[in-house]
Each structure stands twice: as structure tokens, then as C-alpha cells.
Specification:
Subcellular location: Mitochondrion inner membrane
CATH topology: Glutaredoxin
Helix content: 25-40%
CATH class: Alpha Beta
Radius of gyration: 12 Å
CATH superfamily: Glutaredoxin
Strand content: 15-25%
Number of helices: 3
Strand order of the largest sheet: 2-1-3-4
Largest sheet: 4 strands, mixed
Structural class: alpha+beta
Main location: mitochondrion
Protein name: Ribosomal protein/NADH dehydrogenase domain-containing protein
Keywords: Disulfide bond, Electron transport, Membrane, Mitochondrion, Mitochondrion inner membrane, Respiratory chain, Transport
Organism: Miscanthus lutarioriparius
Length: 93
Amino acid sequence: MAWRASLSRSVKEIRVLFCQSSPASAAAREFVKKNYGDIKARNPSLPFLVRECSGVQPQLWARYDMGVERCVNLDGLTEAQIDKKLEELAKAG
């Protein structure tokens, strides 16, 4: 997971949206719970925003230079797949 240390070089902001109680958001909640600390420790200046909203589909957003944003739907993904999606977004920047 060496890519995590260089995350803030390619991405300007990470946002994770999920429902507090929905089964569809369970993996996204667990991903944040297990990985937030590590990502922030490696990228202390990177905004990593967690947004909880009742009934929302789980999503992962990355904002790049010039305000360009990309979104990935996390519905039905496992924690490992969410980690892979974040890596793909990081490398796309």
C-alpha cells in the first residue's frame, strides 16, 4: 500500500458518502473505520471527508486539480474492493 503515502500528490480531497444504517453502506462504514487513521497519518494535509446521510447510496469521490471530480459507486463492494477503487482514483490523478 505504498500508493497511500503519495495519495496527497495526486488527489486534493477524498469524500466518502454513506448511510449510517443501510446494509448497502456496511462495507463503506467499515472501510472508513479501519482505514481513516492510516490514510490521515500518511497524508495529514489531505482533506478526507466522511459524510453520513440517511438513505444515500455509498459513494467515493476524489477531487483533483482544477476542480475535476470523479465518483465511484460503492454499493455491493467489499472493503478490499473499496481500497482498490481508491487506489485507482489516486492513480487516475
